[in-house]
Predict the structure.
Amino acid sequence: MQQDTDGDASEFARAKVNLALHITGRREDGYHLLDSLVVFPEIGDRLRLLPGAPPLSLTLGGFFGPQLSQARPDNLVLRAIEALAGACCQPPLRAGLLLEKNLPVASGIGGGSADAAAALRLAARMTGVDLPQAEWLALALSLGADVPVCLEQKAVRMSGIGEKLHPAPPLPPAGIVLVNPLKEVSTPAIFRALTQRDNPPLPALPSSFGSCGELAEWLKSCRNDMQEAAEALCPEITEVLAALGEAKGSLLARMSGSGATCFALCAPQDAASIAAGIEKSHPEWWVASSGKIR
Ligand SMILES: C[C@@](CO)(OP(=O)(O)O)[C@H](O)COP(=O)(O)OP(=O)(O)OC[C@H]1O[C@@H](n2ccc(N)nc2=O)[C@H](O)[C@@H]1O
Ligand SMILES: Nc1ncnc2c1ncn2[C@@H]1O[C@H](COP(=O)(O)OP(=O)(O)O)[C@@H](O)[C@H]1O
């Protein structure tokens, strides 16, 4: 499995952004079938080893750390490490961990899933265990529908309930701005609130995108089928979308996942100025930008 290490004992857990998210059906067990173009910006949590901390403990830092309870064994980081140990029939990683939680919680950008995937990568690297690719994916899926896509953190077309991953066409240079009104949105609640679950899949993807403008034009023929239900439950999303859509340089504004985080796609050089403008007009929102997506 590919690591994302910056050469030290840490893993970067990038936010997952659904540039388009079509809900195309529902399985008998209630899980929804998706068709989604997923990308990863240079915005994320960081999971690192914490020397001197008792094994296997999790310390929470970062702006959003206090929102996740310190000692809770249900944190996806700890669940991922225990699950890997179970799958390999080995004792779990004997180390203390620090999660720098920079991404808002329950926000449609898969922060918990990204952390779980980062934990799998870090534990695999530290313990030397390895599994066939299909087993990594099955293990990831057992932790959450969004965890498989977060393992590789590369642009993909994701379908099934999240387990079918097909490489996306090469992406053009593009920037992205993420904005969250700091209202938690429950993923199951938005799935439950959907009124239509058999929408058409994504239109055919081109073999490549010549520019971020071309990518934005293609995305305009797509949707986020969870957006309407999320706006009804969390009206701040409509305000966020308006601010992102009106910003100079914004090529497309849309919600990611089940919300409430929304994004603007833009040219790489415009991301920081769009973010600065929104931060100024709405200091109460969480705003982050990246001049790169992958
Ligand atoms: C909607 C998406 C789109 O990428 O993103 P987020 O809003 O979470 O970021 C994901 O499918 C979310 O994946 P994830 O958050 O990992 O879901 P899970 O923990 O596996 O499931 C939480 C609950 O969501 C519902 N669920 C999830 C995935 C799916 N394909 N169909 C569903 O119906 C189920 O009710 C499930 O009990
Ligand atoms: N490391 C983690 N980071 C965020 N949420 C976590 C984590 N571990 C467990 N959770 C739980 O998972 C739920 C979904 O969180 P998150 O992945 O941030 O949502 P979303 O996929 O909508 O962005 C939260 O309500 C939280 O209680």
Remarks:
- The mean pLDDT is 95.
